[in-house]
Amino acid sequence: MFLPLVVDLAADRRRRKAEWNPLTVTEDRKIVSPSRAAAYRLRIGELQLVLYRSLAETSVPRSVIGQHTLHESFFGLLRPGDDFSPLVMVE
Fold this sequence. Notes:
The chain has strands at about 20-25, 25, 30, 35-45, 45-55, 60-65, 65-70, 75-80, 85-90. With about 90 residues, the protein is mainly beta. The protein has a 5-stranded antiparallel sheet, with no helix packed on it. The chain has a 4-stranded antiparallel sheet with strand order 3-2-6-7, with no helix packed on it. Strand 8 and strand 9 form a beta hairpin.
């Protein structure tokens, strides 16, 4: 089970609606079950965050939003033009 929690303390985003969207995770070109890996996109106003968590070990890189990773978890910013900037990566 993966239950992300984000606390945003920025006053300018306090009243903005937050949107959580599940993202598809793939491994070897096959969709991975949410019981093995999960990813979400969180949008609050202009800010977009991506959260990924592997719930089962793998020796094959997994892909989410075009990012290929063997990391257990990552968290980052999704910028306009689908440019991803990682903030935290856990091996």
